[in-house]
Amino acid sequence: MGSEIVLDLFPWLKVYRDGTIERTAGVEVVPPGLDPQTHVFSKDILIAPETHVSARIYRPNFLTKHPKLPLVVYLHGGAFCVASPANPNYHTSLNKLVAEADVIVLSVGYRLAPEYPLPTAYQDSWAALQWVASHKEEDGNNETWIKDFVDLDRVYLVGDSAGANIAHHLALRIKDSDPGLNLKILGIGMIHPYFWGTNPIGSEFTDGIRKELVDKWWLYVCPSDKGCDDPLINPFVDGSPDLAGLGCDRVLVIVAEKDILKDRGRFYYDKLVKSEWKGKAEIMENEGEDHVFHIFSPESDKAKSLFKRLAAFLNQGMAVGV
């Protein structure tokens, strides 16, 4: 009986009757180091020893201390329950992003549900932002790649899927933090963001199979009494923070035409544009592609186009002298 599957969260994991969890995707890892294709260098660092929150940090291999580069705090996807910065797909994709955008990337290794239930992923990601901000203080942390090569006045949050969801909530928390986080977030790049809701919209009406899958994923990682209308996953239910409170100047929302989550991403963009938020929002659609295709096929032409668009977004501040 212990080997009986009681919940199959395809394609991520299986839960057995005895409580055993088998992750069936996103478990592969690769070491950091010099990538011979992009000439990007990476290493693993420990951010919070007490919680074992870690990160993989990336930089172009040939650097000088001037000018300093923007920092991208990257939050990986995986429905809050799989994947890591060491996953080969993420490692390859971030090497390509760093090479294209000429930035430093800190890919956060937050702890995963269900072993660490939500809101742990949000708390760990916030701890990573606090760690970054501490580099502005004389007695703060002293990671040399950040101290020597990062312009801490040009920091971005970027995430795909669940990571884009986390980025949204971090940007809200930044503005409301007390005492305030000593860090300015210039913008958020939200790739195929993982937002949801109980009542279907758009293609969710006709794609019942995938809607049921997404329902199951969320109810498993966040078994709250609010279900799929928990403010963590549905930013537009009663009790959700106002979008006017986003603590950044620019937002880029990227959606994919075949993605079951695309209508939520478009809805988020529309609501943001119509809100009292004072920043600039942009949207891009990946035609003919599905959810996080660029992670699984980073060599494709459309993935390269996505990286170029994201790189342009990250470098806008240099063009306008921010």
TrEMBL record:
Alpha/beta hydrolase fold-3 domain span: 72-294
Top-level lineage group: Eukaryota
Family in the record: Belongs to the 'GDXG' lipolytic enzyme family.
Classification via PANTHER family: ARYLACETAMIDE DEACETYLASE, CARBOXYLESTERASE 2-RELATED
Official protein name in the record: Alpha/beta hydrolase fold-3 domain-containing protein
Organism encoding this protein: Hibiscus sabdariffa (roselle)
